[in-house]
Amino acid sequence: MTTSRASRRALAGLAAVGLLALTGCGTQTAAGPGSRPAAAPGEGRTIRATQLSHVTDVHESTGMTLLEGPVLIGDDELYVTDVTAPPGEPKLISVDVRTGRHQGVYTDKSGAYTSAQLSPYDGRVYLTEYRTGAVVSLARDGSDRRTFFPGEVDGSAMNPDDIVFDDDGNLYVSDLHGMETGKADGRIVRIDRDGKKATVLADGLAHPNGVMLDPEQRGLWISELARNTVSYLLLDADKKAVTSRHEAIHVDGGVAQTDSIAVDADGNLYQALHGRPAMAVFSKYGERLGTVEVPARAAKGLTSATNVAITPGGRAAYMTVSGPSGGYVYTFTAPAKGIRLSNGG
């Protein structure tokens, strides 16, 4: 999840220094390996996205808006979060994918919610709260807020960004963990489905943002914002430890950086870009298959594509895009069908 490079002052009242880190405003590359794999040649074909809904405008009190966490609730309803929504304005928003009409589902006084996801275990909506580090859950109508996990792992609070569930309901969270410029302190955290135990699967990461299981749920794809890389973490049979880890793709994005990740039924990766309202699509072997683009005229007022939800069993995809023009949902036809895992993250 990322935003335009807004000023620290504009966000101070919302999430102080931490939210700037979350939104990609600290963009200097963290210390890391000196060598990188060769970039995938070209950008493949262009996949055109069309506007479905203008959901939010820039908030006067925060100086920005940022849509994240697209997740389909049934056939016709898409939930998105507005990370920078001020107190009292909708922080979880429902968009009708047939008409583009939208309405607020949930708000509170202080939360900065960076992603939304449905649990296959209890069917509730789970949100990551960047400022406190907590993971909370809601009934689908926005009621019955519960703190699922308070946020502290190994003695320090998380700054959670994206989440994904395995089929048993266990969570995997990308933890920016402070996200200081020039440091690589990020983590990937596994939380058992009862919320009682958290395990660090990987650390020393340079601002980890996207996290996604592959379709077979054998491993995790993760992106590091400050390195513009996508890595693959092979998991053991219990999904409680990483058995191997390698850098799989380096994204030559220029001023753009790697944000959230989604997968489809064929194992293709959808890599959202901060700094450009587009998504790079790769095969699981690293071949650049295409680039999802918004129309050039619209792109002038947009700075990031944060995430995507692909309809399970279908190819309709819904991408959250934000910038000075506001927060939008764009739709496109995915190269392959969606699965449960492709429904947000």
Sum this structure up briefly.
With 345 residues, the protein is mainly beta. The chain is built from 2 helices and 27 strands.
> Low-confidence parts lasting 5 or more residues at pLDDT below 50?
3-40
> Helix segment count?
2
Secondary-structure-based class equals: mainly beta
| Main sheet: strands, sense, barrel | 5 strands, mixed
Large-scale geometry: globular
Order of the strands making up the biggest sheet: 1-24-23-22-21
Arithmetic mean of pLDDT? 88
Residue share in helix: under 10%
- Strand percentage: over 45%
Radius of gyration: 18 Å
State the end-to-end distance. Answer: 10 Å
- The counted number of beta strands is 27
**Multimeric status of the protein:** single chain
Q: Give the SSE string.
A: HEEEEEEEEEEEEEEEEEEEEEEEEHEEE
Kindly describe this structure.
The chain has 345 residues and is mainly β. 6% of the residues lie in helices and 46% in strands. The strands form seven sheets. The chain has a five-stranded mixed β-sheet, with no helix packed on it. It has a four-stranded antiparallel β-sheet with strand order 2-27-26-25, with no helix packed on it. A hairpin with a 4-residue loop joins strand 18 and strand 19. It is globular and about 45 Å long. The termini are close together. The N terminus is likely disordered.
